[in-house]
């Protein structure tokens, strides 16, 4: 007796090769609009759909790989300054 037909995998394909956790994050409406616009632009330019989660993971990975010491940040504003390179230069101690 031969095995029955194989069932196709249901749901989304597995794309994570590392351990992962599902979390919920609250975003401002303008952040969601930015992610949606970026996803549309990527799809129009490259013909490939990308999710908000993939974009967010890419942004986090870029910050991780940047080597910037983000522990210096004491607020979201400081974090943005560090990541954009617009942190005001401090005068050296004499």
Mean of all residue-level pLDDT scores: 87
The stretches of 5 or more residues where confidence is low (pLDDT under 50) are none
What count of helical segments does DSSP give?
A: 3
What sequence of helices (H) and strands (E) makes up the elements? HHH
C-alpha geometry? globular
Percent range for β-strand residues: under 5%
Structural class: mainly alpha
Using only CA atoms, what is the Rg? 20 Å
Please bin the fraction of helical residues. Answer: 40-55%
Number of strands: 0
Oligomer: single chain
The main β sheet shows up as:
none
Q: What gap, in angstroms, lies between the N and C termini?
A: 86 Å
What does this structure look like?
- The protein is 45% helix and 0% strand.
- By secondary structure, it is an all-alpha fold.
- It contains 3 helices and no strands.
- It has a domain at 29-84.
Brief overview:
With 94 residues, this protein is mostly helical. It contains 3 helices and no strands. The mean pLDDT is 87.
Question: Which tags fit this structure?
Answer:
mainly alpha
Spell out the blueprint of helices and strands.
Elements: H1 29-46, H2 52-66, H3 76-84
